[in-house]
């Protein structure tokens, strides 16, 4: 009897832990939590943790709690694979990542090979911000889903806006030297050439990713070129430090950006004094005018202490829940099938769709400018007193582009 009692005492906690694990959906968040990309990585982690808490308070997904597992990849593709394997070994079946398309390409390939080798133990990769077009074209994978607009989609919208701005005469391109930055420069040259052949490209610079601490030499080149506008896909410290150097040098040009709203960007813009001369293209922003999104923004800021940089993360998590409920399962294979062609009301309003052909999510996208706030714009950024203002909106149907993806399906 004594031996039986001891056995029960040992086994009972183990059974409790097993039950607890089965009642939890772990999502591995693989992004930079140290190094040059740490500020955006930490912000992303806090965003996903907030979303998990919000969903758990409403019963989670199919009654299961969500746990976000933060894994530091230092913006390094090889380290990302180490962290992905670590996540899988600990029972993670869903991973999410966004900062760095080189990382995204490595993860997509890793997950695809893992799923081929381990049938019945498949993993899904949710991409919330890595926007190299190849990820949903020649390098597409059934196991990869992207919620951010590809850089080609963004550049299409941005150059359509620039096409109608006759004051743009001379453009300088400056981007990070890796797959995403290279795609931004290529698309900018191609699309501006087609839509505004009169515009002169007066500079085209690539610089190391998250390595430059002083952008003043680059700013000097931009100033000397006579450019009236700069196009950049820079993110993280590379956009904040670039804009800071522009402020220090008194460079007065218009900026057309993908990620000027990230950590440190708004403060640097305010220092430039360029009131509504810095533009950003996003899938949503704080002063969009959609009441539900603005209510979410208010609650998010109150708890997290940050602006919502990633409305797409909200869409990702909510669509994950919708797909699991549609499939009545959290099996990655069934969730993937349910996500295909799933239509969804996005955070900032309007319907988006996860295209089955390439697993690219299409949604309304916005061009906004940063500067003094209007009376109906309640949210500033980084306590600058300035905020984002709607300039142009592109509806879902007009945001779609073709794909060359030839997807291999399980």
Index terms:
410 residues; five-stranded parallel beta sheet; 15 strands; 20% strand; globular; disordered N terminus; signal; Leu-bd
Description:
The protein is an alpha/beta fold and 410 residues long. Helix content is 42%, strand content 20%. It has 13 helices and 15 strands. The strands form three sheets. A seven-stranded mixed beta sheet has the order 7-6-8-9-10-14-15, sandwiched between helices. A five-stranded parallel beta sheet has the order 2-1-3-4-5, sandwiched between helices. It has a three-stranded antiparallel beta sheet with strand order 11-12-13. Helix 5 runs parallel beside helix 6, helix 8 runs parallel beside helix 9 and helix 11 crosses helix 12. It starts with a helix and ends in an 11-residue tail after the last helix.
Query: Low-confidence parts lasting 5 or more residues at pLDDT below 50?
Result: 3-7, 10-20
* Percentage of residues in strands: 15-25%
Which overall shape is indicated by the principal axes computed on the Cα atoms?
Answer: globular
The major sheet is characterized as:
7 strands, mixed
- The radius of gyration computed from the alpha-carbon positions, rounded to a whole number of angstroms, is 22 Å
Helix content: 40-55%
Classify the secondary structure makeup into a structural class. Answer: alpha/beta
Major sheet strand order = 7-6-8-9-10-14-15
Order of helices and strands: HEHEHEHEEHEHEHEHEHEHHHEEEEEH
What do the pLDDT scores average to? 95
How widely separated are the two ends? 52 Å
Q: How many DSSP H or I helices?
A: 13
Protein name: Branched-chain amino acid ABC transporter substrate-binding protein
Domain Leucine-binding protein: 24-368
Family: Belongs to the leucine-binding protein family.
Keywords: Amino-acid transport, Signal, Transport
